[in-house]
Design a protein that fits this description.
Layout: E1 2-9, E2 23-25, H1 28-40, H2 44-49, E3 60-67, E4 71-73, H3 80-90, E5 96-101, E6 109-114, E7 120-124
Parallel strand pairs: 4-5
Antiparallel strand pairs: 1-3, 2-6, 3-7, 5-6
Amino acid sequence: MTLLAFHGTAASFDGFRMRPSGLHFGTFDQAVHAATMKLGRLPLREFSKLEPDPNGSRGRLLHCELRVHRILRVEDARTPSAWAALIRKHREHFDCLVYVNRYEGRQEADSFVVFDTNRVVVLNSDYTRSGIQPSD
């Protein structure tokens, strides 16, 4: 199964680095929220170095294709350590976890956690600067 999703980050993108809590993807709105939260944690010196897009945002939104086949629906684990525990428990039988994200974005929607970088194809690593309008 191929899913199209977004990932929000505070920095320019040079490749995914797998974290124990997985890679999180969701709607355009969820990715904007996630990038904004990450930007808010940056020291002013680091934030000031980031180049704003035409809308003034300094975050990056990545448009990605998730190539997953074995998906398990779970409750939102909420913390990195809880996500890491869920991934350890299920990684042998599943390649993606899906949950209803009630925290990021303006509406509840599914978010996806992938724990293998080979399952992610980056379609656009600087979506906000590409001039494309989101479809969600």
